[in-house]
Sequence to fold (440 residues):
Amino acid sequence: MVLLCDGRFVCGCADPYGKRVLGDARAGVSAVWTGDTASALRRDLNTGGSKFCGDCPLKLPLKGDQALSPPRRDPAVAPLPSRLYIECTAACNISCNQACCAPETGITRTRKAGMLDFDLFTRVVDEAAPSLVRIDFFNYGEAFLHKRAIEMCEYVKSRYPHVYLYTSTNGLAFTEDQARRLARSGIDEVTFSIDGASPERYARYRQRGDFAKAIRNLSALVDEKHGKGLDVPFVNWRYILVTHNDSDDELQRAKTLAGGIGVDRLCWEITDHPEDMFSRRFVPGTPDYDAIRHEIWDANNLGNAIPGAMPRARIELERPWLDGLLNRPLRANRGDALEIATRVTNLSTRPFPAQATYGRRLVRLGAQLCAGDGTLVNRDYERAWLPSALLPGATARVPLTITAPSEPGQYTLKFDLVSEGIDWFEACGSPTTSAPLVVR
Ligand SMILES: C[S@@+](CC[C@H](N)C(=O)[O-])C[C@H]1O[C@@H](n2cnc3c(N)ncnc32)[C@H](O)[C@@H]1O
Fold:
């Protein structure tokens, strides 16, 4: 659910003008989540579709067999949601070209209040926190125009540290001090939306936007994080590709700038709007798109356009030389423990952390169990810890012990690194290593 800044809940983030209202947060989160409107919506969806969905752009027609017998979800529902979007305000300090939330669309007039009431915010968070896994602290508009937005982030992370707190900002509503305070708030991840690497090109989509200010605030936030030795926030620069910012020169400027500032991740967003502006160069299926496919925001969760920062590893199995020579399979009796010696090398320019205070983004070696034909059987078959942070270019011995499957047969073990809670390295193009396994 999305909490709009006037206290109403709508059913998703694709509802800029508040047309699909589930209820009012003043009645309580659980009351809305399990209330008549949400329950009827679930019931209707289970029988093939709901009028409630109206013109929602996320609605997709059922295909083929699905249309004949719609997939059903268990109608029983948990008393509270696991994830919320929270909109502090629908107001914005810039006017993105032809955007549905640009101020001139009148979006703020579709809200009954301009700014989210702080007490209502705390009531919603207090009630939902026990079941919440994540809060997306943004929707339409610019969240940090709310005078108490940073205090809201502090409220969540000081009381409910288990909730993953994420925001997306244009970075233009902060003073540098406020950007630093946000870095100290405990927020897990901050995305700066900066669509260009030079002032004029940036401001053609982000109309009235001040490129220098966005970069100053991004730099201040990163500097505070590094200066204070903080693990979080993870800082993204998300760059929407449009016709006037998609040249090699402009992309290269963004890469250099992001690397110099110390941003964690730079990614390109492929969009299909505005119709007269989206990049024609990086259309899916073109060689240019293919060249950046691992660096695209939605393609995976690790890809990175900052030179050298793309996670890359080499995983070698240390086998007796004769085994290697004959490419003999690993062998084990069913249910037996099998110790496998590996060597892992960091081929990127960023260290692979072996630990993380917040339990995510630490890197471990994973063994995935596949059938003999390569079909995945168990992606999380076994894990092994890195002995310590693996620095760029360094190699570490990483022993990993698996329990052989209880069914005899031919299998394949696939080894890959995983950034815990984020993604497998393979998703952004890192090579994996496989070995046949025979279980007797
Ligand atoms: C509407 S903005 C509001 C949040 C905040 N003001 C910001 O700029 O990040 C939410 C997200 O939509 C993205 N966005 C804006 N225009 C877009 C477009 N034409 N195509 C795809 N994403 C877009 C932004 O980059 C941002 O991540």
